[in-house]
Design brief:
The complex is a heterodimer of chains A (414) and B (405). Chain A is mainly alpha-helical and 414 residues long. Helix content of chain A is 70%, strand content 0%. Chain B has a three-stranded antiparallel beta sheet. The chains are: A mainly alpha (414), B alpha+beta (405).
């Protein structure tokens, strides 16, 4: 399809620069459509999943099975009054939703949805994605400041603190993948996962980086402000957090961007840890089992696998939202700084050891097998145990107090 | 330029100098998702830390006490439901039994047992609603729906019995308005039998959740002295380790004939208050089960059969639903005064009535448990984090209509 369109444009006899612009426009439309449609379905899916958890039916009035509910909500938001209260910083208040919205959609241009459906195949794709995703917090902070509302301000400050804390473990755990694959290019990362011939078992979530995956997953949930890390919009104390004062389309932009960033993060996780667009049996099924080599059909298969995997993780995020209470800010920070960051450092150490041993044996990249992770992790957990022991010795008192409170809990006779 | 050189701060100067910070005053409420009604909390925040908190009440004042002076006691009775709408059987019991005490009306045993069953069922519905909203305050949305699912079943029982789901208006001076519908006790038994499983379900999803434990254990520790000094009663007091339950200490309404325990906590933190209320639901089930077995006359269907068969023993005083036939609308209690305190789901619910021989009350005074329980919020909150405010406020279970009346 890719080649077909490109050849068609070439045959029209247009200048190369114009073709480039048309091509860029086309890709933009396709990729942003992917994002929009994904978000529309995610909103409905979230409402349905939460309804099922709480034994309700969820939206079922607009369209068959409530399919058009999100569209109706979108139209409603478009026509709503845009309320500005006195004392707001007009410029920041208006700029904030755009600043929050734009980076989350730009990320889509860097994600390889299939082999060819990829806006930009950059050698530093992973780095750029993290750079962009950390930009979106600026929008939240400005929304908190520009709203002239104390709840919003607290929400914005919380969001800044959260972003600073959770970006570190997020990047460090993704760095493990980059180390293992030897590249920051997302397509190469996918290919190197597929190179190990064990399908689902040679993907990075199990073969090399189970710990990385857990760290990445928990910090990505925090990064996209979802429950139990949804402190910036904690409705029990902050009403609606940073978007309390927003109405109409400005609110819709926040709403859209939140889901879009969840989708983007899930896609990224699938790419880094779950073999991207390849099937769980290694390679592509159409090619492997049915010997079909039609490029368009193969593209479709790739996109299908990626979407299926992504939506599994989105569904898991929704289940978590329906199950867990919210953390407190100090617990949130503590979880990141005291637990995730030390763990991800140890994790990187283990990957580095693995990489060195592999280079020692003369291989350029790590050939992943089902149990590749065993050797480095024995070493790494040994280091971790020593570090923990030292921490216990040095800061023993803090832990003692905690342990005692746990014991008291068990002894209670209520 | 020389001036710019002097303006460059030396290393460390910025940190040594005090940064000018102001406390932020946040006006939480009157309209806020977590204030359980219309409570205004003037909160002084230092970042996320709560420095001071000042509850402002009175947004829901409906002059319930003054209303009683302009209408007859019977006409006043339906409005009592609105004093505390989540457990209005208790309001009615306090009111009705005060009038009964003034007029020295005898209450049949069957009525006492019906009142006991309804009050304990009502305690469960009230605690269920508290459970849902408390978890909602902690940020978990699903337990609310589970709690409402069970609450719905009990509300259905109330609907069968009284015709209303919230404003029951079922008790009368010396009795209840009508006997139980036939087969009602079996329905109660069915709900009561399947309820412990549901409680176990809640415990499985909530009580063992590490985030829940981290957010409640050691938060808002209310010492016994603090609780007594602020007049805290009910489960919140018992969570602090004081075993004070009016059903045990001053048994009313045949509570001395049933066997139950009074759950007590020992530290008085949010987790203890949670556990005490949870255990109370189990104890209430125990009471209801015994009351169903012991109720004089048994199910209404049997009683009616006995009466139809001409059995004279079925018409004795203890099996009636009215002690004495009185014309309710113009009922004139004798001149006097009396008071009752009931152990409501939130604590001591008191009613004090002075009558002057006319159908109206000369003066009625309500004592709501929530009012004094709310007063402990400010001392509990000092120095804790902003989200703890909602956890503590949820855990002491305040309902605003009872505060303002």
């Amino acid at each position: 399809m890719h080649d077909l369109i490109y050849r068609l444009l070439m045959n029209l006899g247009l200048p190369v620069e114009l073709i480039f612009f048309i091509w860029a426009g086309l890709m933009f439309v396709v990729i942003s459509l992917v994002g929009q449609v994904a978000v529309v379905f995610m909103v409905l899916m979230e409402r349905k999943v939460l309804a099922w958890i709480t034994q309700r039916k969820g939206p079922n009035r607009v369209g068959p099975w409530g399919l058009l509910q999100t569209v109706a909500d979108g139209v409603k938001l478009l026509f709503k009054e845009d309320i500005m209260i006195p004392g707001q910083d007009k410029f920041l208040f208006t700029a904030a939703p755009i600043l929050f919205f734009a980076p989350t959609f730009v990320i889509y241009a860097l994600l390889p949805f299939t082999d060819k459906l990829l806006g930009l195949n950059l050698p530093i794709g992973l780095l750029l994605i993290f750079a962009l995703s950390s930009l979106s917090v600026v929008g939240i902070v400005l929304a908190g400041w520009g709203s002239n509302n104390k709840y919003s301000l607290i929400g914005g400050m919380r969001s800044a603190a959260q972003a600073i804390s959770y970006e570190i473990p997020l990047v460090l755990s993704a760095l493990g993948v980059a180390l293992a694959a030897g590249t920051l290019n997302l397509k190469t990362i996918i290919e190197s996962q597929n190179a190990g011939q064990y399908g689902i078992f040679s993907w990075y979530w199990l073969s090399i980086l189970p710990l990385s995956f857990v760290i990445f997953w928990s910090s990505s949930i925090a990064e996209v402000n979802r429950s139990p890390f949804d402190l910036p919009e904690a409705e029990s104390e902050l009403v609606s957090g940073y978007n309390t004062e927003y109405t109409g389309m400005k609110f819709a932009l926040f709403f859209l961007a939140e889901y879009a960033s969840l989708f983007g993060m899930s896609v990224l996780m699938v790419i880094l840890f779950f073999g991207g667009y390849y099937s769980p049996f290694g390679g592509l099924l159409l090619q492997k089992w049915f010997h079909i080599n039609d490029p368009i059909l193969l593209e479709f298969e790739m996109a299908t696998w990626l979407i299926i995997k992504t939506y599994i993780f989105i569904a898991l995020a929704m289940l978590i939202r329906g199950t867990l209470p919210r953390l407190k800010p100090d617990q949130l920070m503590g979880f990141s700084w005291k637990f995730l960051i030390p763990l991800s450092l140890v994790n990187i150490l283990s990957i580095a050891i693995l990489k060195l041993t592999w280079i020692g044996t003369g291989l350029k990249t790590i050939q992943a097998g089902p149990f590749t992770f065993v050797v480095p992790y024995i070493v790494a957990y040994g280091v971790l145990a020593i570090v923990l022991f030292l921490i216990l010795v040095i800061f023993g008192n803090i832990f003692k107090r905690k342990v005692i409170s746990r014991i008291q809990l068990q002894q209670r006779t209520v | 330029m020389a001036t710019t050189a002097t303006n460059i701060p030396q290393q460390g100067v910025f940190l040594e100098k005090d940064i000018d910070t102001n406390d932020m005053v946040v006006n939480i409420g009157p309209q806020h998702p977590s204030t359980h009604g219309v409570l205004r909390l003037i909160t002084t925040l230092d970042g996320e830390i709560v420095k001071n908190i000042e509850p402002v009440i009175g947004y829901l004042h409906r002059s319930k006490e003054k209303m009683a002076e302009s209408r007859s006691l019977y006409q006043y009775q339906p409005t009592i439901d609105r004093v505390e709408y989540l457990s209005s059987f208790f309001d009615h019991y306090a009111f009705v039994s005060t009038v009964e005490a003034i007029a020295e009306l005898e209450v049949p045993k069957r009525v006492q047992y019906i009142r006991m069953i309804t009050m304990e069922l009502n305690r469960i519905t009230s605690h269920l609603l508290w459970f849902g909203t408390f978890l909602l305050d902690l940020g978990a949305s699903s337990p609310m729906f589970y709690a409402f699912r069970e609450r719905e079943k009990i509300l259905k029982l109330f609907e069968d019995l009284t015709g209303a789901r919230m404003m029951y208006n079922y008790y009368r001076f010396g009795g209840v308005i009508a006997d139980m519908p036939e087969g009602w006790l079996d329905k109660v038994r069915k709900v009561v039998d399947e309820f412990p499983d549901r409680l176990d379900e809640y415990e499985a999803i909530v009580t063992k959740n590490p985030i829940f434990l981290d957010r409640t254990i050691g938060i808002g520790i209310m010492s016994a002295e603090m609780a007594l000094a602020n007049g805290v009663t009910g489960p919140s007091l018992r969570a602090s380790g004081i075993k004070l339950d009016l059903r045990k200490t001053n048994p009313y309404c045949s509570y001395d004939e049933v066997d139950f325990d009074v759950p007590v906590g020992n530290t008085g933190d949010c987790y203890d208050r949670y556990r005490v209320r949870f255990q109370e639901m189990r104890e209430s089930l125990k009471i209801i089960r015994q009351a169903i077995d012991k109720i004089p006359g048994g199910d209404t269907a049997e009683l009616n059969k006995r009466r139809a068969a001409g059995d004279e023993t079925a018409n004795e005083m203890d099996l009636q639903i009215y002690g004495k036939k009185i014309n309710l609308i113009t009922y004139k209690p004798p001149k006097g005064e009396g008071s009752t305190i009931v152990e409501s789901p939130r604590g001591f619910l008191g009613c004090y009535i002075i009558t002057d021989g006319s159908p109206k009350a000369y003066r009625i005074k309500w004592r709501g448990a929530s009012f004094s329980n709310l007063s402990v919020l400010a001392p509990l909150m000092k120095g804790l984090l902003f989200p703890d405010l909602m956890a503590i406020f949820g855990s002491i279970d305040v309902i605003l209509p009872e505060v303002d009346r």
